[in-house]
Structure of Rhomboid family protein:
Amino acid sequence: MTHPAAVRPPLFGRRYNRRGQRMAGPPFHDPRTWKLLASPAGLPGLALLVVFGLVLAVQTYVTGPEVWVLSGHALAHGGWHAPVAHLFAHAGPAHLLLNATALLPLTALVMVRLGPGPDGWRRFALLYLGAGLAGAALFLAFNPTGPALIGSSGAIFGLWGAVSRIRADGSFAPLRSRQVGDEVFYFALLNALLYGIIFALVRLGDAGIGGMAWEAHAGGFLFGLLFMPWLAPRTPPPATV
């Protein structure tokens, strides 16, 4: 089955390019996604970006990064705040900017379905924190005494998981649907490629390259995939794209 080239593909759901090929992954290539940043749907992402910048300044000039990282060692020594704190901290400006390029469009896409106003913001906060904590839990399960975790990527992958469930009409695709299967496959492929690239760079002796917390990515993605239908309003808000 192919998608007619003359028909503009939907922003959500199963999409096809002009050659009739299925497309997976968030629609970052679509200009409509980036136009959402100038709408109310983009505000939570921009607010988070401001918080990230302020936290990075505090890390750099006041506390150092150790206060913000999550690890089994940190929890054992009273770092009860670490499961939440690490979601707003980053290893440096480059890490922050890299995450921002995914955070901003994904937040706007999710907010289209979560709805505007205070209720939409509350739903988004639950999604972001829930995905981040799920990612942290899976990371600690695999690394109880291992390296530390810092950054918002677990929560960001949770936003991708949430977007993966949204259909073109605003309803939610079943977990066993082709749409969700395509997104899960693309998520796994992307993480495998990133892991391979980072592994190769580390083996080449680039001391400036850190590891990749695929466990946090997976935990966050699964949370968004599973809980987005429960967090979103039952009736889709009026279309904004």
Q: What stands out?
A: The radius of gyration is 18 Å. Strands lie at 15-16, 22-23. The domain at 29-231 is CATH 1.20.1540.10 (Rhomboid-like fold).
